């Protein structure tokens, strides 16, 4: 599929994701109604970048979209849960997310904790019970394991723990990269790995290329977030701008300087595009996403 067509398919993929979320999430009127309403609130909005990465990787591997609907849904549920918990007063203590009140502000802290718990477990149920994708049990199990590893103590949750333990001190660049490879990068990287799990007999070189793409995009995305925290506005970001600086958090601009941080992100985006050469034009969707992410302002 050509690069020119992918922007038109973005809304198609977002619609598929929304349909999957609608099917997976309990109705807001279903008992306990307040919890289910808050779960839907937490999943509403956002760029859907992680789901788009799953689908774009699927195009690269010539996979039909229905084979990846559950994976795209599951990774977005994990992402939504992580945002709800990260925003809590005990964590990053944020009042604004996606341009509106965070879940603990719109509801209450106890409900927000339960929302995160419920979304996390629902993600694995979605992968485990999917029977429409034509994937065998071993492939579904590999997806569950991949998402669990990326989400747990050696992935996203571990990165958040390192972040909390690092408050009040300046990290070195290797320490900062370790933090964000886990906190932000692990889930982005697993979007590519989930697609690989759905592809039968995938050559090792192609799997390695997609994994490297995911690692580069994940780290570049975080550096870009740190830059936008300085240069962006709360209106553009949909969250409180300048909060990292005000909290004296270690960020790439703080450790490297703003120009060097921008240069490092640009190098990572370039590397992400270069590793796709093994796929030729089949990877145009992933190239478009790299360009799109690099040009974002929120």
Q: What is this entry, summarized?
A:
By secondary structure, the protein is mainly alpha-helical. It has helices spanning 6-24, 33-43, 49-60, 69-86, 103-106, 109-129, 137-151, 156-165, 173-183, 185-197, 204-231, 234-237, 243-246, 252-256, 258-274, 284-294; strands spanning 96-97, 100-101.
Characteristics of this structure?
single chain; 298 residues; mainly alpha; Farnesyl Diphosphate Synthase; two-stranded antiparallel sheet
Helix and strand layout, with pairings?
Elements (H helix, E strand, L loop, with lengths): L5 H19 L8 H11 L5 H12 L8 H18 L9 E2 L2 E2 L1 H4 L2 H21 L7 H15 L4 H10 L7 H11 L1 H13 L6 H28 L2 H4 L5 H4 L5 H5 L1 H17 L9 H11 L4
Antiparallel strand pairs: 1-2
Helix pairs in contact: 1-4, 2-6, 3-4, 3-10, 3-16, 4-6, 4-10, 7-10, 8-9, 10-11, 11-15, 15-16
């Amino acid at each position: 599929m050509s690069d020119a067509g992918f922007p038109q398919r973005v809304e198609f993929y977002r619609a598929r994701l929304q349909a999957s979320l609608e099917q997976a999430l309990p109705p807001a009127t279903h008992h306990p109604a307040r919890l289910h309403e808050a779960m839907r609130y937490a999943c509403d909005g956002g760029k859907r970048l992680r789901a788009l990465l799953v689908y774009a990787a699927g195009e690269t591997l010539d996979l039909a979209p229905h084979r990846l609907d559950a994976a795209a849904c599951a990774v977005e549920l994990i992402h939504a849960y992580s945002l709800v918990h990260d925003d809590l007063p005990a964590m990053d203590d944020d009042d604004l997310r996606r341009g509106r009140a965070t879940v603990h502000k719109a509801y209450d802290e106890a409900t927000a904790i339960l929302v995160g718990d419920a979304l996390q477990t629902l993600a694995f149920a979605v992968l485990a019970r999917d029977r429409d994708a034509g994937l065998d049990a071993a492939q579904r199990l590999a997806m569950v394991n991949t998402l669990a590893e990326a989400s747990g103590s050696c992935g996203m949750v571990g990165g958040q723990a390192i972040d909390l333990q690092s408050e009040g001190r300046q990290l070195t660049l290797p320490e900062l990269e370790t933090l964000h490879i886990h906190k932000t990068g692990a889930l982005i990287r697993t979007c590519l790995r989930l697609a690989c799990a759905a592809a039968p007999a995938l050559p090792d070189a192609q799997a390695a290329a997609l994994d490297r793409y995911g690692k580069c995009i994940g780290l570049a995305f975080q550096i870009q977030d740190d830059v936008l925290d300085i240069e962006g506005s709360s209106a553009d970001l949909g969250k409180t701008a300048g909060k990292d600086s005000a909290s004296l958090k270690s960020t790439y601009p703080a450790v490297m300087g703003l120009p060097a941080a921008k240069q490092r992100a640009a190098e990572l985006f370039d590397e992400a595009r270069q590793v796709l050469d093994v796929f030729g034009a089949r990877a145009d969707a992933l190239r478009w996403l790299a360009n799109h992410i690099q040009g974002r302002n929120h």
